[in-house]
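Crash report, auto-generated. Payload:
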Amino acid sequence: MKALFLGNVAADTANGIRAELIPELQVDIIADPKELSPEIAAATDILVTNIWRADYPPAPRVRLVQSVATGIEWIEQATLPRGVPICNAYGHETAIAEYVLMVMLVWSHRFREIESDFRLHSSWRPSWVHSGAPHGEIRGNTLGIIGLGRVGQEVARRAAVFGCRVLAANRSPRAAGDGVERVYPLDALDEMLPLCDTVAICTAFGPETERLIDARRLTLIKPSALLVNIARGAIIDEDALYAALRDGTIGGAAIDVWWQYPNAAEPERRPSRHPFHELPNVIMTPHCSGWTAGMVRRRWDEVADNINRFVRGDPLINIVTTT
Amino acid sequence: MKILFLGGFAASQVEWIAPIIESDVETEILADDRDLQRVAAALGEVDIIVSEAWRTGMPAAPRLKLLQLPVAGTDRIETAELPPGVTVCNAYGHEMAMAEYAVMAMLVWSHRYFDIATGFRSGSWRDSGVMNGPLHREVSGLTVGIVGLGQVGRETAIRAAALGCRVLGANRTISSPPPGIAQVFPLADLDQMLPLCDIVVLCVGLAPETRGLIDARRLALMKRDALLINVGRGAVAEEDALFAALRDGIVGGAALDTWWRYPTPDEPDVRPSRHPFHELPNVIMTPHCSAWTEGMARRRGADAARNIDRFIRGEPVLHIIAKT
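Recovered output after restart:
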């Protein structure tokens, strides 16, 4: 049986998990998809990747697509054989939950401005020494989590220990508990938004969540509130969010996922057609909230486990869809 | 009963304390505690003083019975200079804010947040997952050693444990481990704890046995990539040794909120150390503000006010730190 690890991330994965894979499995590693030959594609049984395009050479023998990421939207299914399971991998939820807590804390404590003013100008103004204006804390804040999946649940458990009141909105009904005080159906989101000091978007991207946060919903959020997005950029209306942040309709945003990504021609492409980087009330990071050594280790373990299950004929985990 | 809020800091706290006091009291505010004539006049009549400082050479205070600090820190109180028969109490409410700060510093350090945010704002995707950039760390799985298991240390432990850290503690008096803490070392065995820690959090006040506690020898016992967080008092860490250790990579980094030098009216923007910590890239530095939140002011003001009420009603007061 042959497995093809295709693309940069899959190539790193192959090197990380090789010792854990069943020895009979033959492994091809191609970091740059442009170098994929028709012969190798044609011989592949297990495709391990985060990207597959319709113009790649045909791979008619593929019986398992194992994604090395959680999102599978970059895997084009049209030219893959029918009836093939596509499995994803997790392991990022710990890292992302830490990121959400971190940006909530950094925002409330005004950590970056205070640190920068003290380093550059030795400003003691925010201190008790000068009886300066106090900053905030997250204790007692109301956090609204949109999407109570793996990431949302991990965020909820942590935030509750910090003394936040945690609400959530979810597509499928869920019981409260594990830190969550109340779960709203997603179509009652408008009831939850006005209650929140922080709104954290942790939901998957799909037809029901595309532009879920639009201009109207942004006006339902408190003018002092922080909006956190670690899911997918397109869940928020780009124009509406920029205007809301610029005009003070909401207090601020911590954004890790974007509407525009770099490509070979534009490696430093700005992440939006609007200058979010000029707004002082935006915490912005380059899609890295889950990008930790711990995530990689956990994800590698899941990928290796699933490949071995397939080779042995055991039931697969993390099946997202079937081609 | 007459209460005097004495000094600029106490005066700034009146709004958080005075409205909460239920007893019938007469309140006087004297922000300028260097005007000794007015201070002498006020001290002659007061029963209760709210102040965080009591210096040598204060005028007589013959009726004084309670010195209620509006803070936790007692290092500005010269107990020997107080008249006899005074009960000195401090106030809490800062511990939640400081615990949030300590955990925030752990997260920002591990996730390399400042570097990544600065790079991205200027246009670089080098740290992105989609560009297969360098990985950062999580705090989950790290070993956190908390020096000082008072209220701040315990609140920090609960939060760090919730993030998946293994939490150790070192304390002068040894007890069964508080919630979230796997093992407690006596302070005398600190040297055994330090090499185990990815993060060391100093949550102790200044006392003879904590002054210079973290010296060159103990810094060398820490892991080379460890983070030292100081929310206690600057002088718990040895200034010269810490600067050298950070500069030379003996420890990985530091998040410092408490310092060796503080501003004065003549030097309001004084640098916080005789060494240029602000030039080191592995230092996160803030101006003694970890506790300085609205929530802290509300909790601590209420704590002080309730203690004043207890005293006036003849009930036992809390948080006694000295009786003269």
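Post-recovery validation: Residues 93-284 of chain A form a domain with the Rossmann fold fold (CATH 3.40.50.720).
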